[in-house]
Design goal:
- By secondary structure, this protein is an alpha+beta fold.
- The protein has three domains: 7-106, OB fold (Dihydrolipoamide Acetyltransferase, E2P), CATH 2.40.50.140; 116-151, no CATH class; 155-448, BirA Bifunctional Protein, domain 2.
- Helix content is 31%, strand content 24%.
- An eight-stranded mixed β-sheet has the order 6-10-11-18-17-16-13-12, sandwiched between helices.
- The longest helix has 23 residues, at 155-177.
- The radius of gyration is 27 Å and the shape is elongated.
- The two termini are 37 Å apart.
- The structure holds 4-amino-1,4-dioxobutan-2-aminium adenosine-5'-monophosphate.
- 4-amino-1,4-dioxobutan-2-aminium adenosine-5'-monophosphate is lined by residues 194, 214, 216, 238, 240, 247-248, 251, 253, 255, 384-388, 427-431, 433-434, 445.
- 4-amino-1,4-dioxobutan-2-aminium adenosine-5'-monophosphate (4AD) binds at residues 194, 214, 216, 238, 240, 247-248, 251, 253, 255, 384-388, 427-431, 433-434, 445.
- Its main location: cytoplasm.
- It catalyses: tRNA(Asp) + L-aspartate + ATP = L-aspartyl-tRNA(Asp) + AMP + diphosphate.
- Keywords: Aminoacyl-tRNA synthetase, ATP-binding, Cytoplasm, Ligase, Nucleotide-binding, Protein biosynthesis.
- One of its GO terms (biological process) is aspartyl-tRNA aminoacylation.
């Protein structure tokens, strides 16, 4: 077979060598009838390819053929690597290919709904281009999502989803090393698992059912079944009513549940070590991805501490009060007060990643353990990652469920699981899309979901 070179590996070390590449024709520009420039892209990396009519290898017909290729078509190009004296604008690789052979493998439609090159520009670049009088179409979020497979081709999106894959990989590796086992739980269940009303209802063989709002009940039951430490990765369904920048109707849940010996701080210790290690390794392993993302969506690296900051909910409320923000000390923080608290914490402690613990019981799900010393509070924590110690006493669990207005019939097998001797336990859950959003300081969770599902979107 022929030897193929990837565009990302084209460097000046290959100077004067003949290479064979396959990529998409991102831009095609003719200069008279004797010259043409093609920018060819493969997985977010681009190289400039030059056709110059020359007696032995490039004919005028070849130049004509090349300039008739539609954008985003696949082309095979063979040619010699050269290093131009000046920097190449509009291509990631700083070498050129002097084309000897070109073949269009598969053509894209002549008119595309999104120009990938335009979709890859940052806001600042767009402003500059418009000022310079360039013709360019601003690609809005809905158009991007409608034609996601085109939008996905930008270097930033290539980076985001490759980084997301690493988040999953690091999550699994860390937990497997800590003696957790990965389990699977059903997504078709009888009722709400979080106690909220936001469930997708469906009919399950004439019986009312819903899509799992979380693996909460089953991951706890696996702990009752002596697995000791479990985790899982899977879809989570929320029939959200609110259309916000951080809520999806389906997201990927990263869930952990574990036995504890004495205190739910053991769960927070896992959160702490897991995420510090994850952030460290993302910075280490995903340099190229982070650079590509930052070019389109400029951001500062996430600020986090070696030991994750832990603040009590009361301390958080006090910080807000001191800053003139009134909040209900036994209520939940709304998005705005969360945002302000994030800013205050960053100013005071220099971190964007922290844990707020000892939440008011009233705002936590029914399965959350009340604080033994004060029942107005709970053994729980939140802030991007939410977790808690769980109630392992069946009578208390049943009464808490009732107090929270849950139809206990729909969770009777769950409650029964605690009647046969249940260990002290706790756990946490976080949305994959939210982790990537935080790490890259992206402004919308739709940017980190390949095919987002939100209150207005079920396609593509
Ligand atoms: O805070 P939530 O609802 O907690 C649970 O589901 C618990 N069972 C977790 C536990 O083990 N105690 O959701 C968990 C996480 C949130 O912290 C957030 O990161 C993410 O899931 N999340 C969402 N992500 C995207 N869209 C939504 N609508 C989300 N709702 C929650």
């Amino acid at each position: 077979g022929r030897v193929w070179t990837t565009i990302s590996s084209l460097t000046d070390e290959l100077k004067n060598q003949t290479v064979l590449i396959r990529g998409r024709a991102q831009t095609i520009r003719a200069v008279g009838k004797k010259m043409a420039f093609l920018t060819v892209r493969e997985k977010g990396y681009t190289v400039q390819c030059v056709l110059t009519v020359a007696p032995d290898h490039v004919s005028a017909q070849m130049v004509k053929y090349a300039t008739a290729i539609s954008k985003e078509s696949f082309v095979d190009i063979e040619g010699a690597v050269t290093v131009p004296p000046e920097a190449i604008k509009g291509a990631s690789q700083q070498v050129e290919i002097q084309v000897r052979k070109i073949h269009c493998v598969n053509r894209a439609a002549p008119v595309l709904p999104i120009n990938v090159e335009d979709a890859a520009r940052s806001d600042v670049e767009i402003e500059k281009a418009l000022e310079a009088g360039e013709q360019l179409v601003r690609v809005n979020q809905d158009t991007r999502l409608n034609y996601r497979i085109l939008d996905m081709r930008t270097p930033a999106n290539q980076g985001i989803f490759r980084l997301e894959c690493q988040v999953l990989n690091l999550f699994r590796q860390f937990l497997l090393n800590e003696d957790f086992i990965e389990i699977q739980t059903p997504k078709l269940i009888a009722g709400s698992s979080e106690g909220g009303a936001a469930v997708f209802k469906l009919e399950y063989k004439k019986q009312p059912a819903c899509l799992a709002q979380s693996p909460q009940l089953h991951k706890q039951m696996a702990i009752c079944g002596d697995f000791g430490r479990v985790f899982l990765v899977g879809p989570v369904f929320r029939a959200e009513d609110s259309y916000t920048h951080r809520h999806l109707c389906e997201f990927v849940g990263l869930d952990v549940e574990m036995e504890i010996k004495e205190h739910y701080s053991e769960v927070m210790d896992i959160v702490d070590r897991l995420f510090v290690e994850m952030f460290d390794k993302l910075n280490e392993r995903c340099k190229k991805e982070l650079e590509a993302i930052g070019k389109q969506y400029p951001f500062q690296p996430l600020k986090y501490l070696r030991n994750t900051l832990r603040l009590t909910f009361e301390e958080g409320v006090q910080m807000l009060k001191d800053a003139g923000v009134e909040v209900d000390p036994l209520g939940d923080l709304n998005t705005e007060s969360e945002r302000i608290l994030g800013k205050l914490v960053l100013e005071k402690y220099g971190t964007e990643f922290y844990i707020l613990y000892r939440y008011p019981l009233a705002v936590r799900p029914f399965y959350t353990m009340p604080c033994p010393d004060n029942e107005a509070y709970s053994n729980s924590f939140d802030e991007i990652i939410s977790g808690a110690q769980r109630v392992h006493v069946p009578e208390l669990l049943e009464s808490r469920a009732k107090e929270c207005g849950i139809d206990v019939k729909t969770i009777s097998t769950y409650i029964d699981s605690f009647r046969y001797g249940a260990p002290l336990h706790g756990g946490f859950g976080v949305g994959l899309e939210r982790v990537v959003m935080l790490f890259c300081a992206l402004d919308n969770v739709r940017k980190t979901s390949l095919f987002p599902r939100d209150p207005r979107r079920l396609e593509p």
